[in-house]
Design goal:
Elements lengths: L12 E6 L4 E5 L8 E8 L1 H11 L6 H4 L3
Protein name: MbtH family protein
GO biological process, one term: siderophore biosynthetic process
GO cellular component, one term: cytosol
Length: 68
């Protein structure tokens, strides 16, 4: 398995999202915690951060966004 300069494998992380629409990076080798689901994005840390920056444009929880 190839590693990056930070010691990560190319797909060491996945992006997960909860019911409130909040995103997080999660290590690919760990089980996804309850209340979170995979988005389908997996890659190195920076690629996952870039994805989250692109899709998570409103940091407010969904329950707060829906009140307006």
């Amino acid at each position: 398995m190839n590693r990056t300069s930070t010691g990560e494998a190319p797909s060491d992380f996945c992006v997960v999202v909860n019911d409130e629409g909040q995103y997080s990076l999660w290590r690919s080798d760990l089980p996804i915690p309850g209340g979170w689901r995979e988005t389908g994005m997996a890659g190195n840390r920076q690629a996952c951060i870039d994805y989250v920056d692109q899709v998570w444009t409103d940091m407010r929880p969904a329950s707060l966004r829906q009140r307006q």
